[in-house]
């Protein structure tokens, strides 16, 4: 574990009470761990604004597999030479719908490009791209 430094933080009583309420609801046992996670999240957010930074992308799709050429186009994008598809999870939800979770590795710009193309395919009912910077 890295050397730990102690800092003092001054907060208004109302703000501290609201923070304590929030972190208790999330299951944190103490303020320090919650504050560390808050800072990590902020740093991660800042890194995800750098298009050239390496990252993992988690693409979540719900689609109708009966829509013509959709599964073929989706597979084609997963074999894109822009980035690496690490893994996919496919769940047959019902007669029409599939849930697919695709984990990609590349730069943030590449993941946003290919992930965006997946989400915008005709027949996709719900689509999201979540970015995880490679350094966290
Ligand atoms: Ni399916």
| Largest sheet report | 4 strands, antiparallel
Question: Helix share of residues?
Answer: 25-40%
Overall geometry? elongated
Radius of gyration: 20 Å
> What structural category characterises the helix and strand content?
alpha+beta
Architecture of the largest domain in CATH?
A: 2-Layer Sandwich
Query: What is the tally of beta strands?
Result: 4
Mind explaining what this structure looks like?
The chain has 136 residues and is an alpha+beta fold. The longest helix is centred in the N-terminal third of the chain and has 17 residues, at 31-47. It is elongated, with a radius of gyration of 20 Å. It has 2 domains: 13-47; 54-133, 2-Layer Sandwich (Alpha-Beta Plaits), CATH 3.30.70.1150. The protein is built from 4 helices and 4 strands. A 4-stranded antiparallel sheet has the order 2-3-1-4. The structure holds nickel (II) ion. Nickel (II) ion binds next to strand 2.
Summarize the entry for a quick read:
Helix content is 38%, strand content 30%. The chain has 136 residues and is of the alpha+beta class. It has a four-stranded antiparallel sheet.
């Amino acid at each position: 574990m890295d050397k730990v430094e102690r800092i003092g933080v001054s907060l208004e009583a109302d703000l501290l009470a609201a923070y304590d309420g929030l972190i208790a609801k999330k299951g944190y046992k103490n303020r320090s761990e919650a504050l560390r996670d808050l800072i990590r999240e902020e740093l991660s957010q800042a890194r995800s604004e750098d298009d050239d930074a390496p990252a993992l992308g988690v693409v979540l799709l719900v689609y109708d597999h009966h829509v013509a050429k959709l599964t073929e186009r989706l597979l084609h994008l997963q074999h894109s030479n822009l980035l690496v598809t690490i893994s996919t999870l496919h769940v047959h939800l019902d007669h029409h719908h599939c849930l697919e979770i695709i984990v990609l590795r590349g730069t943030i710009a590449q993941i946003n490009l290919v992930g965006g193309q997946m989400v915008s395919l005709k027949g996709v009912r719900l689509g999201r791209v979540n970015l995880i910077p490679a350094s966290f």
